[in-house]
Amino acid sequence: MKTKIDLFLLLLVSFIVFFTWKGILNQGIDGEGFYYFSYAESKISLKSLLTYYDNFPRISTTILGNIFQGNMQSFMDFQLVIIILLACTIYLFVKSVTNNRWISLMASIYFGVNFSGGFQIYARGHFQWFTQRVFELFPFILSTYFLLKFIRTNKKIDYLFSFLLFAFSLIMTHYTTLLLPFYPAILISSALLKKQPLKRKLLYIVLSLPFVILNYLIVQNSSLGPNVVRPNQSFFTVFLQTPDLIYKVSYQLVVNTLPLSFLIPFKFIDVSNIKTIIYWLMIPTYFFYMFIFWFLHKKKVYYFNFIIACFLALIGTFFLNVYVNRVKNIYDEIFQGRYFYIPSFYVGIILSSFIGNLIPDKLLGKKYLKSVLIIAIIFIWSFSNVKLIDSKIHDSQYMHTGGRVILDFLNKNKNNFPDNSIIFLPNPLMPGGKDFLQKYYNNPSKSIDYQFIDIQWKDDIPKNFNPKNIFVFSYTDEYKKGGNAQINKILIKDDSEEYRNVSL
Q: Could you read off the pLDDT of 441-500 as tens digits, one per residue?
């Protein structure tokens, strides 16, 4: 019976997450999303494993490219499947910690249906961010599972598994460094909060060091470069010379605790005044978390150390965002939410645990009212996010449609172009798309060069080139309407003759 309930809730999570992000099925890879198709097949060596910050994206893009070739729909289907699997994994993980289905359900939905944290990664066509930042959560969750098991059982094998899984995740993508704060946080919080001998408390603190040391050694040699992972100043120097450090951290905490999807729908809130609103919410937000911790401690929640660790890791991640100088005003730059992707994981667990314990099992003497109330909360959260996600997907859909129209056109006509041709295309794919086109949308028996039409387009034409082998395509005028375009009217126009005359 219990297994059937879990299966039902996993199906519910899958349905809600699918419904939330189904719009990406009509999208395509865009812009820098084609980044890894340029060199993904470069050889992976021991040196590269320790220095490349993006081994997994390189490997996964190679594998997926060999499987899907240039089929854009398959890439989009794959993304949605992974998003759903991750949400289901979080449900199972949180349930293993809390042994509470309602908390697990809320945590998985909070993370899986989150505009602020997920939109930029899931629904902007930036496939490189998806491969860089999503997959690392699977080994991290498993690593955390074994670390928590070690804290319960003190079996060395569990600690070893946890460390190796963290090492694997870090080697595959150095963005795992943003997950590092959780490991010392859970070990130190367990040492301080759990009743155990002093020797064991000290052991927990010492055991946090291998995670930190390994992370430092690998990330310090990262190919991300000094401007990202190691600014010209030390970790502590950056903080000492950042007078608004506390403000930047507090700002992120408010944004993640009260997400954009909850503020925007209120018409009386002027978006230009969002910063001011956030400023006045900073101190109340800290008091809110203090109340959560007091309440959960009073309730004698046995996983209290885990909740504290999530909060410490949350704050640690915000400090790291400041350190690498990647903190953006999400209200000014709405698509910079990838820096809040991991924080939304922690916040979802904390808030879900609070709500799950706050609502009594019997409300007004009736047991079923708790279920009704939690379902209502999930509905409100999902609706507010889905509405915003759908709106933003719609605003940029014309670009994705334009890109897919190009790909479809080339796929149908790639055998009709003469050998030694230059094909100029409109530019929704951006420069990275040229390598993708060369690899998957080309006739291997012909020499065809893909370029994008711009002001300097003639510079891409060799001297004495045959004008008949110049092909130039653009969109119908519908494309110029941007977010208001009728998607079905975005078609390809042949402007070749006009440009051939100009080239002469």
A: 887 778 888 888 888 888 888 888 888 999 999 999 999 898 899 999 999 999 998 888
Distance in angstroms (rounded) separating the CA atoms of residues 366 and 387: 33
Q: Which residues contact 394 (CB under 8 A, 6 or more apart)?
A: 23, 483
Question: Angle at CA 103, nearest 5°, toward 100 and 105?
Answer: 105
The one-character DSSP state at 462 is P
b/e per residue 322-348 (b: at least 16 CB within 10 A):
bbbeebbebbeebebbbbbbbbbbbbb
Task: Tally the residues of the chain.
Answer: 504
Record the pTM.
0.91
Q: How far apart, in Å, are the Cα atoms of 21 and each of 16, 92, 168, 354?
A: 9, 21, 29, 27
Counting Cα atoms < 13 Å in the Cβ hemisphere of 142 gives 13
**3-state SS assignment for residue 463:** coil
Distances (CA, A) of 304 to 94, 95, 382, 386: 13, 14, 27, 32
DSSP string for residues in 21-55: HGGGGG----GGGGGGGTTTTSPP-HHHHHH-S-H
Cα–Cα distances in angstroms (integers) from residue 429 to residues 3, 129, 450, 451, in the given order: 46, 16, 12, 11
Helices (H), 99-232: 101-112, 115-122, 127-133, 137-153, 156-172, 182-193, 198-207, 209-219
